[in-house]
Amino acid sequence: MYVVVNAAQSVDGKLSTRRREQLRISGEEDFDRVDRIRAAADAVLVGVGTVLADDPHLTLDEEARRVERLRNGRPGDPARVVVDSTGRTPTDARILDDAATTYLLVSAAATPERREELSDAGAEVIVAGEERVDLREATDALEDAGVGRLMVEGGGEVIYSCFAAGIVDELQVYVGSLVVGGRDAPTLADGEGFIEAFPRLDLTGIERLDDGVVLSYDVGERS
Ligand SMILES: NC(=O)c1ccc[n+]([C@@H]2O[C@H](COP(=O)([O-])OP(=O)(O)OC[C@H]3O[C@@H](n4cnc5c(N)ncnc54)[C@H](O)[C@@H]3O)[C@@H](O)[C@H]2O)c1
Ligand SMILES: Nc1nc(=O)c(N)c(NC[C@H](O)[C@H](O)[C@H](O)COP(=O)(O)O)[nH]1
């Protein structure tokens, strides 16, 4: 499976404010770029923290659907995926509407009753891991379900875990021209943090978009 991570951050590396409210960092041109990455993916993944904070829909806008998906010969929207150990995704979350298939990656910590409620709400529930979701096992299961290209849209906890699991091939970061600050505001990679063997990146592109810049990287070995 090929995994591309995309996020928008402030110049000081924050994905949102310390209140974890959705913050518009991207401009129109950057949201169009995000749509193109979504369109090229078989599935778009977020953490349950993002679902609870933003209630995202994760579908394509009309233009991207028309131009990108049909051109790739794959009409419709990519699947949506939530990393959600205990199944905290609300059954009325926008991500569980019938606009596209939605996989909920839970762990053994999600009760059978909760798994059933989420299946009844329309989710395809995949169990991987004991406490937290085991991302390697879960992405293998997604690959078996036909997901060859996965876009990870955040948030910071999940992006860190994807790097820690060694599953990221490419990173695209939009750096918006603002300072958010706050030691408790989510950053591009939260989690425990690396203290040795850091993921090393090869810078493959720099592009000015709106008032900010898109940095593109291929992900190399940890060292
Ligand atoms: N600017 C952007 O591009 C962007 C993108 C997405 C989210 N956001 C923002 O990020 C914030 C949410 O990010 P977050 O870091 O709180 O949450 P997150 O979306 O990264 O979800 C993290 C949660 O997922 C669950 N989880 C289960 N297994 C896990 C595993 N193996 N690794 C990591 N998490 C696992 C845990 O409950 C954990 O708390 C919101 O404020 C949202 O607006 C910004
Ligand atoms: N690229 C990008 N720039 C931003 O300025 C911003 N705030 C996000 N945030 C990503 C987060 O995951 C959002 O929840 C989804 O972008 C919402 O997706 P929908 O529009 O509901 O499909 N992403």
UniProtKB/TrEMBL annotation:
Q: Which GO terms describe its biological process?
A: riboflavin biosynthetic process
Domain of life where this protein originates: Archaea
Q: Could you say which enzyme class this protein belongs to?
A: oxidoreductase
* Annotated GO MF terms: 5-amino-6-(5-phosphoribosylamino)uracil reductase activity; NADP binding
Q: What keywords are annotated for this sequence in UniProt? A: NADP, Oxidoreductase, Riboflavin biosynthesis
Keyword Protein biosynthesis among record annotations = no
Pathway listed for it is:
Cofactor biosynthesis; riboflavin biosynthesis
A Pfam family? RibD_C
InterPro entries associated with the record: DHFR-like_dom_sf, Rib_reduct_arc, RibD_C, RibDG_C, Riboflavin_Biosynth_HTPR
Q: Please state the Enzyme Commission number of this protein.
A: 1.1.1.302
Where are the annotated coiled coils located?
A: none
Which reaction equations make up its catalytic activity?
2,5-diamino-6-(1-D-ribitylamino)pyrimidin-4(3H)-one 5'-phosphate + NADP(+) = 2,5-diamino-6-(1-D-ribosylamino)pyrimidin-4(3H)-one 5'-phosphate + NADPH + H(+); 2,5-diamino-6-(1-D-ribitylamino)pyrimidin-4(3H)-one 5'-phosphate + NAD(+) = 2,5-diamino-6-(1-D-ribosylamino)pyrimidin-4(3H)-one 5'-phosphate + NADH + H(+)
Domain Bacterial bifunctional deaminase-reductase C-terminal: where?
2-215
The family this protein is said to belong to: Belongs to the HTP reductase family.
Q: How does it assemble?
A: Homodimer.
Protein's name in the database:
2,5-diamino-6-(ribosylamino)-4(3H)-pyrimidinone 5'-phosphate reductase
* Biological source species: Halorubrum halodurans
